[in-house]
Amino acid sequence: MAEDGEVAKRAKLLKPAEGQGMKTASGLPAQVGPSILASDLSMLAADSKKAMEQWTADYLHVDIMDGHFVPNLTIGPPVVKCLRKHTTAFLDCHLMVSNPEHWVKDMAAAGADRFTFHFEATNDADALIEEVNKTGMKCGMVIKPKTPVDVLFPYLDRIDLVLIMTVEPGFGGQSFMVDMMDKVKTLRAKSPKLNIEVDGGLNLKTIDTAAKAGANMIVAGSAVFKAEDPKLVVQTLRDKVVQHCP
Ligand SMILES: O=C(CO)[C@H](O)[C@H](O)COP(=O)(O)O
Ligand SMILES: [Co+2]
User: Fold this and answer.
1) pTM
2) Which of 1, 42, 83, 152 is the most exposed place for a label (fewest CB within 10 A)?
3) 50 near 229, Cβ under 8 Å?
4) CB-based pocket (< 6 A), ligand 1
5) What DSSP string runs through 39-107?
6) Catalytic residue check, 63
């Protein structure tokens, strides 16, 4: 299990690259996290290093899929553990798994920094939040497109971040669902200091809408890894958050 304070210790080791550490008008972090699902997974360590050091990403988004909660299978704690040996980057882990409670200890031991679980995947979100917070990982909650945002209201004061899915979870490279922005606006109005992350179809065309609605943390897979100039994409996405996020 991760020792208390391990996330904070790793954060101190990170030397900020150009553009990292930027804030929104209300003082929230303005951050971009490339989704490593879109990287060359056989070169995960090298691609992660490039994303953090050359492209100036703020964190890495790690999609954990179990082939049950979603119809796709990706990676799990053993790969996170290997990646951890190669980077001090903040590992933002998006658990698209049934029974997320089964993976808390293994993910903490592997070196995950944030454990974001789907509201739809658990019967006891209260217990799961407590369990995640005890490990020293930060806790996030995420909802699928068809889940209304108000299901999250009882938990907001105990979690670090809400992730609003802007595609059906399971695959990269899908189109951004603009109608999810009402959820972001509702959350932002209710919780001005909450980290709101969006995931799925974020790119240079969709970023203004997401940032204006109130998202301050942007996951981008294809838009970064398939770009001709990934650094420019990361920096532009972050600049748009600074410019537009209230
Ligand atoms: O959680 C995810 C899919 O379930 C991914 O993080 C997301 O799809 C990112 O990929 P892209 O930016 O290409 O849409
Ligand atoms: Co994701």
Assistant:
1) 0.95
2) 42
3) no
4) 35, 37-38, 61, 63, 94, 167, 169-174, 199-202, 219-223
5) S-GGGHHHHHHIIIIIS--S-EEEEEEBSSSSS-B---HHHHHHHHTT--S-EEEEEE-SSGGGGHHHH
6) yes
Q: Cα of 121 to ligand 2 centre, how many Å?
A: 15
DSSP class of 119: G
- Encoding tokens for residue 120? 């739809």
Residue 129: half-sphere exposure toward Cβ, Cα within 13 Å:
18
Lookup: tokens for 191:
């919780």
pLDDT in tens, 202-234: 999 999 999 999 999 999 999 999 999 999 999
Domains of the chain in start order, with CATH, are 6-244 (3.20.20.70)
63 known ligand binder: yes
| Candidates 47, 63, 113, 160; catalytic one | 63
Global ipTM: 0.98
